[in-house]
Amino acid sequence: MGLLGGGGLYAANELGGDFGGYEAPETQPVVSTRGRLDESDPTERSGSWAFDGADRVVLYVHGLGADAASARDQAYTAGLALDESLGADAPPVIGYSWASDVDWGPAKRTAEANAVPLADWLTAWADADGRPVHLFAHSLGARVTGEALRELDDRGRTDALASASLFGGAVPDESVGRDGRYGPAIGALDAPLYNFHSRNDRVLGWVYRASDRTRAVGHGGLPDAATAPDGYANVDVTDLIADHYSYIEPEEGCMPRAVGRIGLE
After folding, report:
1. The pTM is what?
2. How far, CA to CA in Å, does 197 sit from each of 139, 214, 215, 217, 264?
3. Topology of domain 29-36+63-262, per CATH?
4. d(CA 183, CA 231)
5. What spans are recorded as compositionally biased (Basic and acidic residues) (predicted)?
């Protein structure tokens, strides 16, 4: 009853799995909106932001159930996976930390409330720094990302990203279609959007479908009946991904395939 009533993806804990157990050092760079959404400047930096020599960065947006420590650890884990694939050429990973450690319904509303802060941060980075940003979004981070893309489109700042990638995206599959909620913004983006999806992802294939009564784009990709917007690509990683948590893990994840598709080599 809790699952169907909106308790949602916390039931995912019953399915097992984690992000590999990697613990980030305090130097891991993070930008956070936790407890700050009502502030005039809702983003706050922590960690080390000395990216000397880097010609691009990755911004990692986590999903549901992450407290501040977990958000930092996940960004660090994504960085380890990039290091494994790219070695010294791997870009630094910045974590985008938002208050997703609440129940499913409130978390979806908080994801939407992060659209403006994330768009603000991306445009400020583009104007002040200028190094290309490749956005990685896991699970409910896809909702944060989709809403931010709509905000960027409204502002005419479709140039703020070098690419966007969804890993196990917990948004409705039709929402990324040309006529869906996020489709027009994806089509307007001056960059590609890649949807890495796996039919082995039981959190999306079972729990998400039961709680939201729809299919997740991170499970089966954009449905055949929908039309893809310009710049959108499904990337099936079912052969690589065994569960909802392993997309960004070193050794077990899909980062080697992802960097090839995104063009990060």
Report:
1. 0.94
2. 10, 16, 12, 7, 19
3. Rossmann fold (3.40.50)
4. 10
5. 35-44
